[in-house]
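Hi there, hope your week has been kind to you so far. Do you reckon you could talk me through the fold, stretch by stretch? Thanks so much in advance, here it is.
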Amino acid sequence: MSRSRALQYYIMVRLLLAPLMLLTIVTIVFLLLRATPGDPVDAILGNRAPAEVKEQYRERLGLNKSLPLQYLTYLGNLLRGDLGSSITDQGQDVWQVIQQYFPATVEVAATSMIVALIVGVSAGMLSASSRGTGWDLAGRLFGIITYALPIYWAGMIVQLIFSVQLQWFPIAGRFPSSLPVPVGPTGLYTIDSLLSGDVNSFLAALHYLTLPSLTLGILLSGIFERIVRVNLKETLQADYVEAARARGIQEGKILVSHALKNAMIPVITILGLTFASLLGGAVLTEVTFSWPGLANRLYQAISLRDYPTVQGIMVFFAAIVVLASIVIDIINALIDPRIRY
């Protein structure tokens, strides 16, 4: 089988598996929501509401049907692109909820990933190129500590120091109430303020974004540091690297041009999956910093037993994770032909 045909076959298999993965995730979320204690009707109307009113509300939400019938109805609506309406947001469409809150999650996730890559790859390269020295030990400790620290604990400590004690950054929120909110096509306050030429709004948005992004980014950087350090150490001992040294090539050029490329293959895989998990699982960060993103909205929906909103957001996040995994697999197959076979 030629390389092009092998790559086409690999991509086709990954695309065919995507709907199956989505169906599995959708089914698990649907069943787990029904298995958790608590009734969404009681959460909305309260325990003192009349039984007749509760039954009417339950019928309106379709919760009086059998579990298989609820599941089939939900899948039918999902195939039509209908995620349902929020129970707690006065019947607001779940798609509207996603459009409203998702840009904030993208903004904090993207900036956190930039911080994680810069810090993690730099620390990994420094540790790998300084084998057996104090920098190597410091890199190991940095990777272990940042990987082990809980995000919510680190977030509260950072807030206590930099927001409460030093008062350098705001403790919560996304934008100051004293300024008009930037309006633009992206929904990202930093980008929209730059597009409109409003430097004050950009600096204000960046000021609010700095603390959660740095906290989450530095904690995630430990993952990249460990992967880069381990793979780069192995690559620096390869035969083609020794041959490059024998030809008199400078060590810095060997590190960047020869060794780093092969060592970055597993980093690309982790990069895609970590970014997808940032979009779909930054709940603790957004809740800790009161960041008005989609993950925070998911946490609120879970607390209020808002089934349609939870299911819709989880399906949306699952689609992002599956799409990201497919894209990363294809990129890896293009970089390393051995993955296709």
Q: What stands out?
A: The radius of gyration is 24 Å. The mean pLDDT is 79.
